[in-house]
Amino acid sequence: MILVANPGSSSRKYALYDDTLQLRAELHIETVGERLAATLHHHQTTTNVPLEYSDLAESASHLTTIFRYHHSIEENETIATIGLRIVAPSSYFMSDHIINDEVVAKLQEVREHAPLHVDASLEELRRLREAYPEATVVGVSDSAFHATKPNYAWNYGIAIHDADQFDIKRFGYHGLSVAAAIDALWDRGKLPPKVVVCHLGSGSSVTGVFHGRSIDTSMGYSPLEGVIMASRSGSIDFGAVKALKKNLQMNDDKIEEYLNRQAGLLGLSGSNDIRELISREADGNHMAHLALDTLIHSLHKAIGSMIVALNGCDLLVFTGTVGERSAVIRKRIVAHLEFIDFILDGDLNDACTSPEKLTSVSQAAKSRPIIVIPANESLEIAKHAQTLTRTVTL
Ligand SMILES: Nc1ncnc2c1ncn2[C@@H]1O[C@H](COP(=O)(O)OP(=O)(O)O)[C@@H](O)[C@H]1O
Ligand SMILES: CC(=O)OP(=O)(O)O
Ligand SMILES: [Mg+2]
Fold it and tell me: CB atoms < 10 A from the CB of 312, how many?
């Protein structure tokens, strides 16, 4: 069996696949306010799973109990391979790796540059190795899909020899989610040449895809760049960062922490949860309204830049937990895309709050297609993990 572990900035997603890559079970643990909520999807049913712990980081240590209790895995079955999603800035992590001491050392080298993700991956790895000492763990790159970007989409405006020597490039992330969406479209014969994929979750990004290949994405060296996120600032002027550092008397670690964990929607409004912001806004809360408007404006700019980079757009895709569930956010985004013929069907959009398959939400007669695709990073990770272990075994 293959176990997939996907540590996100606010969630843990796990999945079990058999050796023919048939999905056995999916476990999604998310943060709702101060507590954790877990749902297990298997045998065509979805069950709420009560958790006996409250620290998200502990999740990997409880998997065996949960999966065995619900008969997702039987006594005689073992996990031979684990695919672990890796979000880490460096050319090295543009590829998948079977995790050994060298890979762990490379992760440790870059941990301060993506604190939300690398620390979580290292902790996840420690717990997975403890729970499944016999399994081969494959670190699956969340950036590899962006390897097709043209040269100019890798660069910051800095001396190229410094960028090369110190490996400072725009690597991009959420590649597994975008690849899964593109695969799903391809499998159904619905992949047009120019696609903009909005992955909206706790971390969010917008990617331009030309003939199935990434041509640019809003995240860069680390998953801090780009649009405003739940607790991440997104792109911010270095001058503003320096002024913040000086006024708040922060060292490098503190400012990194500030921009990753205390900024974004949380910094603007006091909440990192879009559901809560939508309900506060409806009650007349101005800060919630301003935070949501700032978020939407930042998404408009990112989508606009991808449409121009692609020189057009044939299909708009929403994926990621917010992209899948929030009709309100989709509506506010698409409201500015009518000029290029993207128009939502109000009823289809409102009805799409937890889709299990590709769901069209655009007006059939007038609009270019807008499709909501459930993020399937798990399958992508399982495929990569299986490919790498097979290649190495051969
Ligand atoms: N119905 C919903 N409407 C809007 N936002 C939602 C909804 N359900 C969950 N969210 C938000 O989705 C985010 C989690 O997204 P997800 O992509 O799963 O996170 P991660 O970055 O950990 O992978 C949380 O910030 C949560 O507030
Ligand atoms: C790359 C990234 O931000 O991932 P997530 O959305 O899972 O936190
Ligand atoms: Mg995620």
Answer: 13
Ramachandran sector of residue 43 (left: φ over 0; alpha: ψ -120 to 50; beta: rest): left
Q: Is the pLDDT of residue 10 over 80?
A: yes
CA angle 11, 14, 17 (to 5 degrees): 160
- Give residue 56's pLDDT band: very low, low, confident or very high (50, 70, 90): very high
- Confirm or deny that 128 is annotated as ligand binding: no
Return the sign of the alpha-carbon dihedral for residues 77, 83, 85, 88: positive
Q: What is the dihedral of CA 4, 80, 118, 65, to 10 degrees?
A: 70
Rounded distance from Cα 9 to ligand 2 centre (Å): 6
Active site residue 216: no
Cα 49 to Cα 269: distance, rounded to the nearest angstrom: 31
pLDDT value at residue 115: 84
- Inform me whether the pLDDT recorded for 394 exceeds 70: no
The ipTM, to two decimals, is: 0.98
Token pair of 322, please?
Answer: 């917010």
Two tokens, residue 77: 């079955």
pLDDT in tens, 278-328: 999 999 999 999 999 999 999 999 999 999 999 999 999 999 999 999 999
* Residue ending a domain, choose from 114, 147, 180: 147
Nearest 10 degrees: Cα torsion 129, 172, 232, 236: 150
199 annotated to a ligand binding site: yes
| Residue of 142, 183, 341, 347 marked active site | 142
Q: Say if CB 344 and CB 361 are below 8 A apart.
A: yes
Q: Find out whether the beta carbon of 198 lies less than 6 Å from any atom of ligand 2.
A: no
108 and 224 both lie in a single domain: no
DSSP SS3 for 75? coil
Structural domain of 122: 2-147
CB-based contact 196:169 (threshold 8 Å): no
- CATH code at position 345: 3.30.420.40
Ligand-binding site membership of 13 (annotated): yes
Q: How far is the CA of 165 from the centre of ligand 3 (A)?
A: 30
Distance 6 CA to ligand 3 centre (A): 7
